[in-house]
Amino acid sequence: MTTEADAFSAALRDRLDAARDAGVTIDLWWRDDDAIEPSEALDTLLATADRFDVPIALAVIPEPATQALGTRLENASDNVTVLQHGFAHRNHAPQGEKASELGIHRPAGLVLDELLHGRRKLETLFGHRFLPVLTPPWNRICDEVALRRDEIGLTGLSTFAFMHADDPDCVNTHIDVIDWKGGRRFAGHAKMTAIVTEEIDQRIKPSRGRMDREPLGLLTHHLDHDDDTRAFLDTFLSVAVDHPAVRWPAVGSLFS
Fold this sequence. Notes:
This protein has helices at 4-21, 40-52, 67-74, 108-126, 143-148, 189-204, 227-240, 251-254, and strands at residues 26-35, 56-60, 80-84, 130-134, 156-157, 175-176, 178-179, 185-186, 216-220, 246-247. By secondary structure, the chain is of the alpha/beta class. The model has no long low-confidence stretch (mean pLDDT 95). Strands 1, 2, 3, 4, 5, 6, 9 and 10 form an 8-stranded parallel sheet that branches. A two-stranded antiparallel sheet has the order 7-8. The chain starts with a helix and ends with a helix.
């Protein structure tokens, strides 16, 4: 009997086969958000990345990040890099608005000062693993802070879907495995099939008025993974890790 996981695996392989037949190679990358300290969930995540030998970027929240996390990553695989996930992952939007730490609700200078402090802390904790790439909490950042991030040495940017897509140094994620409004659980194979199909087809035959061959980003949050989410990652990676239409470039090369 065909399971939902089997159906997803077959659909993913079918679209990747179509990309191969069209002579298209898709760059895949993986970003995981909200790391602050060692945990069993983080160990499981890193073990999965190691098992499939794929690069993974940990978006670390600077203010609560611990020395223990720096120590934990000292002996991690070279495939593990660290990005900057805002400063404190603290919402400053008024009630009724979408959550935002890096929005228009505070002076840009204050926001940039916090981010600079966070960048320096992450450089100290993680050394060569740290890439000067800003990943805004909730994937939201106002235009002024985004445009001025170079002032504090954060050259790269990573959000979600089409957000800030006109920024030449922005590399986004597209496949969010969590259903945030439905109980913070796995979003389900049907939704994942629809998203992956749309994103791969967009790269085979771009239709947004531009050649959309941007890297395809997988977005996870290890602290919110249930058993179904972890099983899905195994299913996804077992197909995507060595398919001839896929490359897994080093994360640093995506932002260089």
